[in-house]
Design brief:
Elements (H helix, E strand, L loop, with lengths): L1 H8 L7 H14 L3 E8 L3 E8 L9 E6 L7 E7 L11 E7 L2 E8 L5 H13 L2
Antiparallel strand pairs: 1-2, 2-3, 3-4, 4-6, 5-6
Helix pairs in contact: 2-3
Amino acid sequence: MEVEQFIAEWDEDSTGAKEIFVTLKNLLESLEATDLEFKARPGITYSLRGVKNTQSKWPLYVMVDVIDDDPSERWLSVCFFGDTITDPDELGDLVPGGLLGQDGHCFDADDSDMTDYLVARIKEAHANQ
């Protein structure tokens, strides 16, 4: 699988983004009725998408982007369609038209403190699809 090769070749990780990415990937693999799509655009992003393989309002329920403008300092942008999650701690940003042309809600993850919060949002989005 292409995503496994990407992870294996991800050598530098000064921000801790790799650990968060692997945690979120493993979560997505464990969720019922979920397929993973991986789109590599080296130097821009590596995008992991959680897609429900059942009837769904949206083409995906989460997009985990590894921002690759500086491969030695990658960070994550984790986005959801705006109406699929809540943000009780107000840690995300509303991005009008920012997710496949629809309003998105995105979280920047540049340290492991965000991991549990993102796991909860992914589970919420999965349940709301």
